[in-house]
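Bumping with the actual sequence this time:
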Amino acid sequence: MAANTTFSLRSILEKEKLNGTNYMDWDRNLRIVLKQERKEYVLDQPIPAEPAANAARAIRDAYERHVRDEVDVTCLMLTIMEANLQKQFLNRRAHDISNELKNLFQKQARIERFETTKALFHTRLTDGNSVGPHVLKMIGLRDHLERLGSPISQELATDVILASLTPAYDQFIMNYNMHGLEKTLTELHGMLNSAEQNIKKNRSDILMVKKGKGFKKH
């Protein structure tokens, strides 16, 4: 069962090899697979110095495991790169490859972070559009910033989402802030969906009243 799971997850990596323009997605998928295999540490920790011959058995076992895992991860990384990158890193270790790729594609990451931040802070709900998909989009942008290494606190993310709403939600926003509510973004999403239904109902009731006043007796 474990082998099947590993094979299934590794198939994610085979869909698109690292080509110089997809580093962030590639690195994220690689870490998902390695986390499942309990080998993600290899990317972040260099192989320690070889223990002395009289070192404790546990220390030697940990070292030998790290060496084995490093070989596995290095080979995996090389097989999911385009040929030109393979040649560049052919004789390097996984930890070194990971660090060099970060430096190599740092500019790409900065641009992606800027564009994501810009999209998050400039997204606005427009009249006629549903609040649910709007909030999910903003949550997705916030999550993406976290993956890029620039997390935004839940409190700030909540403020940004509330500030993006139309004036129809002013009463909801006032109540939310006055009561000092501290909800997760998922809970906020649910509350705004309910608020949207109430807003639509109130608009419908007002429209019915206006139509009723428009009738004239003959």
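The tokens above came from a reply further down the thread. The two ends are 80 Å apart (CA to CA).
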